[in-house]
Prior knowledge:
- The protein is mainly alpha-helical.
- It has helices spanning 3-68, 70-76, 84-101, 111-132, 139-152, 156-171.
- It holds the Pfam family DUF7935.
- The chain crosses the membrane at residues 6-27.
Amino acid sequence: MSGDQILQLFAYLLPAVVTGAVAFYFFRLHTRNEDGRRRFLLHKDSQKETLPIRLQAYERMALFLERIALNSLVVRVAPTGKKKSDYENLLIKQIETEFEHNLSQQIYMSDSCWNIIKTAKNTTIQIIRSAGMSETDSPDKLREDILNQTMEKESPSNAALAFVKKEVAELWD
């Protein structure tokens, strides 16, 4: 093969190679766009199905936080006996039972939200225990001490509920 023939062969191949490279580039670009579109549609469909479930989980946790708020808890749960320790344990048992009932809701919310809810529960129990260490001897006095503590500072449930509301609002953004 002579130099002219090689040059002629190269002149015929060059447009075919350029056309093939451009076609490959556009095909790859089209494939990426289609994958992105499919992913978006799948995400959109799954949002339609999961959003109501997630909202229900947030609703249940809001109800949990309202139910363990100390001022509503001591009004709702009356002492059954004469011992202060029995009433303290009853209040804590109510909180733990409510929490265990809603334990599965954690899969529908962020880790930070779930951790704040757990912290509110633990802090509420801590407040009950610290009020139980006071010199009072009757369950009614314990109720009074707990209510006095909630008057002085913000309830842990209220702080957690504010965070839950903020997170639900972010679902719409």
